[in-house]
Design a protein that fits this description.
Blueprint (H helix, E strand, L loop, with lengths): L1 H13 L1 H4 L34 E8 L11 H10 L2 E7 L14 H11 L5 E7 H10 L5 H16 L3 E11 L9 E2 L5 H12 L3 E6 L10 H14 L4 E4 L7 H10 L4 E4 L23 H9 L4 E3 L4 E2 L5 H17 L3 H15 L1
Parallel strand pairs: 1-2, 1-10, 2-3, 3-4, 4-6, 6-7, 7-8, 8-9
Antiparallel strand pairs: 4-5
Helix pairs in contact: 3-11, 6-7
The structure holds zinc ion.
The site of zinc ion has 5 residues, from loops.
Length: 353
């Protein structure tokens, strides 16, 4: 009997994560708006295209796909430069870790960064999602040893001078279309919180993908907003970016921005709404910003940045797609006041990174 007690006690010491399975999240500090927005609501017509420089703060570069021709890194830099995107922040997708060690694109991203020197495009690298997101999702009770190794690697990466932040971290990533892999590990948040401590200690940015509603409509808003609240309670200075405008409606988005002065959003124009069910696209299917989003961006222009979510390194001409995406961004920015447009396109990212 004594032995069993001892083993249990040692187990709790070794796996603090188990205790945290019961982690209680605070309620969101605002009334959550649970009505899904009308996709046919008024939108702002495109006006003259925005012409200034762009920092695209959220793009992906995949590892080399087996059987595919090598990714032409110069082509990525060339298409960025040609479209006056002079800074790119590249990072793994939340699901990159599914492809195992060989499937990590970390080396490619570092190579792109090296190549970018002197090219006219500055490339910053974000890291760690490839070895943390999927692992947290799949390994609900990691051994102390494996957890320590992962977090030691994160410490080393954030201290190493190349990785300039963590992303794109997956918390909830549902099957929105096709065969997208699912990430859903609530409420086992302990590993996530441990990661956040390290990010906060290093004064780095965390770029987080957390879907607030499942494709069939089940709300996860209390979990996402509760977790965000807990993060800021514990680390009031945490630098957090919610990817894709937090994937919630403009009312909740505004409440989040007002509640947490350090919070930023990156924005992506999703024109195929069938691939973004219940995740509140900010534009209609013609790429025009919804009026409510445009007004929020003009009211709080210092809180948004561009994040096209481009997927370089994949087959089927990602550079051609990128040209189109940036054209869409310029059209949408052009419909905003010029000061807001410039802040969102460039100034905010310069300020925060
Ligand atoms: Zn994402």
């Amino acid at each position: 009997m004594r032995r069993i007690v001892l083993v249990v006690a040692l187990g709790l010491l070794a796996f603090p994560a188990m205790a945290a399975d019961k982690l209680v999240l605070p309620p969101p500090p605002f009334e959550v708006e649970r009505t899904r927005s009308d996709p046919d609501r008024p939108a702002r017509p495109h006006a003259k295209r925005y012409k200034g420089e762009i920092h695209d703060t959220h793009v992906h570069l995949d590892p080399q796909h087996p059987g595919e021709p090598a990714t032409d890194l110069d082509e990525i830099l060339a298409v960025a430069l040609k479209n006056d995107v002079t800074r790119l922040s590249v990072m793994p997708t939340p699901n990159e870790g599914r492809m195992g060690k060989e499937g990590s694109g970390a080396k490619q991203r570092v190579k792109l960064r090296e190549k970018s020197q002197g090219s006219g495009v500055q490339v910053d690298v974000r890291c760690a999602s490839d070895y943390l997101s999927v692992w947290m999702d799949e390994d609900s009770k990691p051994s102390k040893d494996s957890a320590d190794k992962k977090f030691a690697r994160l410490e080393a990466d954030l201290s190493g001078g190349i990785c300039r932040g963590v992303g794109e971290f997956g918390l909830f990533h549902f099957q929105k279309w096709g065969h997208q892999a699912v990430i859903d590990y609530a409420p086992r948040f302990e590993g996530f919180l441990r990661m956040a401590v390290i990010v906060a200690d290093h004064d780095m940015w965390l770029d987080l993908h957390a879907e607030t509603v499942e494709p069939k409509g089940k709300s996860r808003e209390d979990e996402v907003f509760g977790l965000v609240d807990l993060l800021f309670q514990r680390h009031p200075d945490l630098k957090l970016i919610l990817a894709h405008t937090a994937m919630t409606n403009p009312k909740n988005a505004e409440a989040l921005l007002r509640a947490y002065p350090n919070l930023m959003f990156n924005l992506k124009l999703v024109t195929d709404h069938s691939k973004w069910r219940n995740l509140e696209p900010i534009c209609n299917e013609q790429g025009e910003l919804y009026e409510d989003w445009a007004q929020l961006m003009e009211a709080m222009p210092d809180r948004f940045m561009i994040g096209t979510d481009a997927k370089f390194g994949r087959p089927r001409s990602p550079t051609r797609k990128y040209r189109k995406a940036i054209k869409g961004v310029r059209k949408a920015l052009g419909s905003l006041g010029i000061d807001a447009a410039r802040m969102i396109a460039w100034d905010n990212a310069e300020r925060v990174f």
